[in-house]
Write a structure and sequence with these properties.
A hairpin with a 5-residue loop joins strand 14 and strand 15. The chain is an alpha/beta fold. Strands 2-4-8-12-18-22-26-30-34-37-39-41 form a 12-stranded parallel beta sheet. The protein has 8 helices and 43 strands. It is 25% helix and 23% strand. Helix 2 runs parallel beside helix 4, helix 3 packs antiparallel against helix 4 and helix 6 packs across helix 7. 39% of the residues are buried. The radius of gyration is 36 Å and the shape is rod-shaped.
Length: 484
Amino acid sequence: MPGRVRRRRPRRARPLSGTVAAAMLRAAITESGGAPVAYDGLRVTGQLDLTHCRLETPLALTGCVFDTPLELTGLTAPALDLSGSTLPALHADQLTLDGELRLSGARLGDGGPARFPLTEPVAGADGGRAPRRLKEGAARGVVQLADARVGGNLLLEEATVAGGGAWSLLAPRLSVGGSVHARALRTSGALYLRDARVTYAVNLHAADVGGIDATGLVCGGGFYADWGFRSAGQVLLRSAEVGGVVTFHDGVLAEPAGSLLLSRLRAPRLRIDLRRPPHGPVHLQDATVDVLVDSDDTWAAPGALHLEGLTYQRLESARPVDVRSRLGWLTRDAHAGAGSFEQLAKSYEAAGDERAARTVRHARERHLRRRDGLTGRMWGAVQDALFGYGYVPRRALVWLVSLAAVGSLWFARHPPRPVGGDARRAWDPVLYSLDLLVPVASLGHRGAWDPVGFDKAVAVFLTVSGWVLATAVIAGARRVLARG
């Protein structure tokens, strides 16, 4: 009919099978005319280069074998599926996808031996410890996703990345609109996710990796490195912010460098109840969590645990951990200060266990006195023995009663003479000893009798002891009233 406009049907992608040249495959992808592009089981020779291409439809190259790295830097597409494919490397920096990036079951890398990145903490300019910063321009990864934007999920489930250097995944500032699913991922190198943004969760259930550097990660959901997760290198979540749980439950931090560096982490819940004790240190300095879940069977070794500045509201464990064992946990940090003990005491107070809180504060004083000089340690030992630094006031009362009994027995056998020879007041050794020991009130006996010789020395000892012990009782009572 005149005037009728005929719509152009989209051209189908060029049918390809078997072994194809990369140039032919590229032409089929870029000249599809908006038709879906999906190929399975191809063997691609030469380098497929889609750098800075813009595709209108999703691209699926599943179960394909590439003999050279896949170049996708700057590619823009609705979605990309490379599930089950085999390729030496994927270079996709600045990749932009509206939907998902699928690498499930893919095999990447040259199959070389594991190499571990140099992220061991070194002395910083301020004398503290800081990780070596990766030089992105010089570093290369088997999978490169620097500054990539994935609108949906990033799927790496059961993928394998072997060889290719220290970094299996190099994805600084990666943005994922969904979740990162990497269950049973196997990598010989480490995952570099510094300053990445993940809207939902990072799932690494049963993954086996060479390490993780997710410093500065922002994740709206949870970070799940659990149920058989294994890392042979460091796991860094420094300054990360996670909206849900961060869990390493049933995880393994193995040789040669398995360790946790979680300084300044922010998360509602942190689980570090591992399958077995970590090979390396655990750093929790200045981390802030609401609930910390651990297991006394898998605490880091003495000297390998760093807790100063860690803030938590509640401690949980698979089985109850008594306060004495928990104090042993604190003292595994050789640099633990008053703040670490006070944090533990506050958590017991929040749970309503005042006795445990007092025990922790008593232990804090003992721990701090060990750093004093000889005279300070001696005086600390005296305070501890007499009244537990004021946290065991009943001990001071026991001393007062004991000294009153000893003084009464002494003066019952050695009564002093009355002052001025006036014997009108009846002699009572118990009241006289109590009058010497109690400095805040007078019972009228102290000034009525005049001991001489060794009796005077006993009277002076009781008076000095009374002042010291009464001061301790008052200090202990003041602490109890202040806490109430």
